[in-house]
Here is the input.
Amino acid sequence: MYDEDDLSLLDAGVELESPLDHIKPLTAESEVVKPDPELMLALLENPQSQQRMLAARAFCDIQDQRAIPHLIRLLTDNCPLVRVSAAYAIGRNPSQNAVEPLITQLKRDFNGYVRKGIVWALGNCRDRRSLVPLTDALRTDISAVRLWAASALAQMAGVSYEAVVGAIPALIEALVQDPIAAVRSNSAWTIGQLCKELPSNVVYATAIDALIQAFAEDKDLGVREDAKASLLGVGDPRGLQLIETLEQEGWF
Here is the structure.
């Protein structure tokens, strides 16, 4: 869907970062004075793009459902900085009403930064409708978006068993085949999270096999470590036995 030329839209030094690296979590005990929601709601309609952007960013710190219709509208703003800010804000104020607009914009937005924010927001919305666009992004988008799509799919654990099962094939494919180590690492982590929600069936066994393969064969140490951490987190006997055997042999 998108070719690697889209990477020109991203800073190579930060393209694999997560939005969570820059957006601090909301805490009830926060001592930081938050923006005035009434003022920020008004600024979302400001004719100046800079003001709209700042207002949208404010809703990364403010939880207020009144902002949702405005943020949805800003997903199609002419300014990409406004669009990406709106996507992040929706991720902090997830809404079922935002899912379809997010999916639509993900399909058509040319800007890699915006698509990154959208996949993060789609994950946070925890909606079954997000499964297909997130797996498509993991398979076809630029590396930066694939990285976040892999992480966002972990949220399917809070959606349904069917959503978990639907996410596993794309994650296994990415873990085994993606050329970017960071994407493989995130896929390994997400598979581990989803396996905790699965019974011991064929899907579970296939996912564990993929983690074992990555742990034993991936050329990147970080990927192997993440696969190992997932196996340990799931507590699968086969994975635990392999880890013990390889460590006794001084494999690392």
Summary: DSSP finds 13 helices and no strands in the chain. The chain has two domains: 36-125, 128-251. Residues 19 and 59 are 14 Å apart (CA to CA).
